[in-house]
# Entry
Amino acid sequence: MIVAGIGCGRETSSEDIVSLIFVALSNFGIARENLTAIATETSKADERGIASAAQSLSIPILRCPVADLGRVADQVLTRSLRVQEIKGVPSIAEASALVAAGPNARLLGARVAANKVTCAIAIGEGS
# Structure
């Protein structure tokens, strides 16, 4: 399972999200067709930009509770002080990708960021 973990501002456009997903996939040599899902923290999953991005890519959004994000905090490569202050976890994009990718998940690299969007790619044994 290959998952794009997403963090973003509330009013972020789906175009900015999809564009960054394509950048991240390209960075790791992954074809778009191999992307299984978008993942994000539960409270962000219904935001218009994220929902529209998933719809345009024809993939599901996987919702990751904050408690689950905290359980993978030691595996993230990039930490955000702002996210730590607001959510109590060091990462949304990287942690969501790890949680959603399932057992033995690993990040392919550090998240990428642009236009108030962060995207991390993880691969794991989830279904």
